[in-house]
Amino acid sequence: HLPALDYRDGALHMEQVNIDEVVNHYGTPCYVYSKQAILDVYHAYSKSFASVEHQICYAVKANSNLAVLGVLAQAGAGFDIVSRGELMRVLAAGGRADRVVFSGVGKTYGDIEYALTQGIGCFNIESISELALINEVAKTLDKTAPISLRVNPDVDAKTHPYISTGLKDNKFGVAHQEALALYQQAATLSHIEIVGIDCHIGSQLTEVAPFVAALDKVIELIQGLRDNGIELRHIDLGGGLGVRYIDEMPVSIEDFAQALLPKLSELGLTVFFEPGRSIVANAGVLLTRVDVLKPTAHKNFAIVDAAMNDLIRPALYQAEMAVIPTVLPSAGIETADTQTWDIVGAICETGDFLAKDRLLSLQTGDTLAITGAGAYGFTMSSNYNSRPRASEVMVAGERHQLIRPRETVEALYADEQLWQDAP
Ligand code: LLP
């Protein structure tokens, strides 16, 4: 399941690059992404949906490094953004504003103004007050705002509660029953142009059934809109397709497409998707060095130089991600000194773990790769404990390139000021 990674003569490679060379060049902790792996998934989406007009809007929040955005922009991708900052990144990376959809429940006046000025493709609207605000900003700028309504189809995505978004208890979207009235209201507004309909039901979905259930609900609404004289140009099914971290068996992009295409073809609308995780997760690893081995009577702890500030998914969602050595012990993964280890960071919190109960043969100074770390890894990292954020590297063929240097500690407090007592 990790197409960009394999062992050659016992050494982990990403594409044609020996990972040890990356470690020697850039140190650890370090995120490494495969350009080819990113493009392969992007192309799997566009191929699988080739029979309908479509636009893949990569969800920037999953991994927003300019190099990643640039590779996707060059391939023709659109983008799903949730802030002015993400739009600025997309534009800095060469992405086109007219291929961007703007999601999120709390867009501010400034966000909307910037997006309209840049010529945003569509605002995915989540409430009546947002609709009014967008109309007002557009009027001030003498522009027309293209909008789509994010409907909450009330289907169970069967994923972790923190990343499930399509239930009526969630803060997201407009209830199915209220959608028609809100569209009718939108149709009366002078500076609003209705262009689409949108839903996103959650993240890391492994089954196709919830997507189909959500699509059925959205199609019902599209019929209702047509009956009321409201015609759309696109339907946006959000993101959410899961990936394999350890032993998950997510539906493949091809099967996902096969399940949805019969219904989508009949609609005659352009189909948008907003995938994040599925495009970048397995294109990336986080490299970390074993600093201290601490066997205790109850547990064995391997303390590594990455921590929850670098990768918070295990601490926040109890996410399980695979940990593999960058150099195989000569006798293979399981040797005489294989033991069960908790892989933990050096931060002062019990929640600071990256993996639990992993069978590994470890020595101080070894490098480990945490796989599946290309999505929601660096973008969720922080400076907790005054730890500089990791470096990021991209690999393509035989080349590797630094795409973000490791932060310096000095930079972390460079803009801070000592309190000045009154003279
Ligand atoms: N569109 C919208 C409106 C979203 O809210 C999201 C993700 C996506 C698209 C992309 O979903 P994806 O294809 O990546 O599943 N930090 C969590 C995941 C949070 C997802 C938030 N929304 C994690 O690390 O598991």
UniProtKB/TrEMBL annotation:
Where along the chain is pyridoxal 5'-phosphate bound?
Answer: G240, E274, P275, G276, R277, Y376
What PROSITE patterns is this protein classified in?
Answer: ODR_DC_2_1, ODR_DC_2_2
Q: What is its EC number?
A: 4.1.1.20
InterPro entries xrefs: Ala_racemase/Decarboxylase_C, DAP_deCOOHase_LysA, De-COase2_C, De-COase2_CS, De-COase2_N, De-COase2_pyr-phos_BS, Orn/DAP/Arg_de-COase, PLP-binding_barrel
Keywords, ordered alphabetically: Amino-acid biosynthesis, Decarboxylase, Lyase, Lysine biosynthesis, Pyridoxal phosphate
Residues that coordinate or bind substrate: R277, R313, Y317, E349, Y376
Q: Which Pfam families match?
A: Orn_Arg_deC_N, Orn_DAP_Arg_deC
Annotated metabolic or biological route of this protein: Amino-acid biosynthesis; L-lysine biosynthesis via DAP pathway; L-lysine from DL-2,6-diaminopimelate: step 1/1
Residues that the record marks as modified (N6-(pyridoxal phosphate)lysine) are K61
Query: Which GO molecular function annotation, any one, does this entry have?
Result: diaminopimelate decarboxylase activity
Q: Which residues form the Orn/DAP/Arg decarboxylase 2 N-terminal domain?
A: 38-281
Signal peptide positions on this chain: none
Q: Which cofactor does it need?
A: pyridoxal 5'-phosphate
Entry keyword Amino-acid biosynthesis:
yes
Q: Which domain of life is it from?
A: Bacteria
The residue ranges of the Orn/DAP/Arg decarboxylase 2 C-terminal domain are: 30-374
Stated family = Belongs to the Orn/Lys/Arg decarboxylase class-II family. LysA subfamily.
Function in brief: Specifically catalyzes the decarboxylation of meso-diaminopimelate (meso-DAP) to L-lysine.
Database matches in HAMAP family: LysA
Q: How does it assemble?
A: Homodimer.
- Return the protein name: Diaminopimelate decarboxylase
Supply the source organism for this entry.
Psychrobacter halodurans
